[in-house]
Amino acid sequence: MTSPVFVALTGPGLALARRLAATLPEAQVHGLAGRTEGADATFADTLAHLRDLFAAGRPIVGVCAAGILIRAVAPLLADKQAEPPVIAVAQDGSAVVPLLGGHHGANALARRLAEVLGVAAAVTTAGDVVHGVALDEPPSGWRLADAAAAKPVMAALAAGEPVRVDGAAPWLAALPQSPDAAQAITVTEGRDGAGVVIHPQTLALGVGCERGADPAELRDLVARTLAEAGLSEKAVACVCSLDLKADEAAVRALAADLGVPARFFTAAELERETPRLATPSDVVFAEVGCHGVSEGAALAAAGPEAALVVPKAKSPRATCAVARSPTPIDAAAVGRGLGRLTVVGIGPGQAGWRTPAVSAAVARATDLVGYGLYLDLLGPAAAGKRRHQSDLGAEADRARAALDLAGQGRDVALVCSGDAGIYALATLVFELIAHEADPAWRFVEVTVEPGVSAIQAAAARSGAPIGHDFCTISLSDLLTPWQVIEARLKGAAAGDFVVAFYNPVSKRRRDHLARAREILLTGRPGATPVVLARNLGRPDECVTFTTLAELSPDMADMLTLVLVGNRESRLVDHGGRRWLYTPRGYAAKLGDPVVLGESA
To answer: What pTM was computed for the model?
Structure first.
């Protein structure tokens, strides 16, 4: 569970929230603007802020009436397996009530907070109330074979009936047990068992493969090997290998498929396991500096008390081995893990245009990297994060810093305005990876989350100008020669595309917009509508209309997107304002034939 956000609406509530947050690592306190002083972040709209936190997957502890929390998140309730915990705490500290996510951390967190306050948590989940055990949410290091199988066992326990427990699990010791009970719990590393089957994650899966091996080959080898040994995949705690394999697609895909971390060891660390190897190899030592990769990695991850239960198994291009620890393995404590870099587009400015996927990536991140203005636009979502900001124009430094931080094992969000892949830093990240090949970057998982681009925002604010074919062209020649830009402008003019100009005017570059206008005028009339959209999604947003003939550099700057219609784009008055749209050809079906070359 990620660190919770305490939400306070009054001064006394803020004081209690701070007291409770101080007992939890990296917890944040958000307060209602004008009523709380000294919160980590403030908000003006309580319900909207709570919904944003909930949609981002942040655990919420509201020091307020439970009804406020219920009204805020009720429209968002859809999947209890994915929803974050929500807890209500009375402002006087007299009650702690887990409202949602009881078996996903809320009950445990509520008990912890109640202990601080010296009260009893108002836990209502049946299994927790009767025995303090939630079978459908095992503690770390244990996994259910089938969550649905837990329901009849939990129902029996709630009714006061005993169960039969086959196998050892200390956290189940408090349950009433009988060898003749109708309902059973099986604790096993194996694949079968009666009743609800719980797997201790005591197995370390060591793997090796040739460079570029097919992920399906490694996956099939592992599945076959575990099946032949009678071992469940859910008893695997981690996938481990030599650090040279940290960027191997087959290894990463296997860990993702099994739902466990990938962990890596140096050749020296694996070489220390040589006395315990079943099949040491001088050939492997000559190639990578250790006598065994899959067996060595499995043993290193499982610990000094471990035993090799499945020696090296081979396919044409991959190997795997399994070691067993006497207790569940804490994967985060062994070897070296992967860092994560998510390149996010936060939209043009307002939080409402930020996708849930982006909000979740920002909420999860330990570090935020970006231009200072973009980090500021995150508002409360940036509270409590390590900020690494740089000036406009230092894009390569930002992207490199984000990769370096992720290479150290951190969870990093590289923040871009608009969409991360449209004139933003996603491209630069992959360029750096391709050209610099820093060995530490092998340990970085890179993902890109899309955002609302300025062209989408401008189109929405002005009507529907990009309802037909369109293109985007940046008028900045800092990275692209003007001759290339000019050729693209001529192509757009000849093809009669609706055109969006990014970076239209800067202090140094005053004539490119005028030159672009002249090129477009060779293919469309001067009366063609033009949208000037500035500071979209921000308090000083401004959207105006002009024509292509009247368009001048004085009308735009670097915060403006210029959207030029094509020969069919036209204006329409509705609701006391003007709207721009570009027909797609429906007019003929509606009895209003399109007249080419006309523009309202």
So the answer is: 0.78
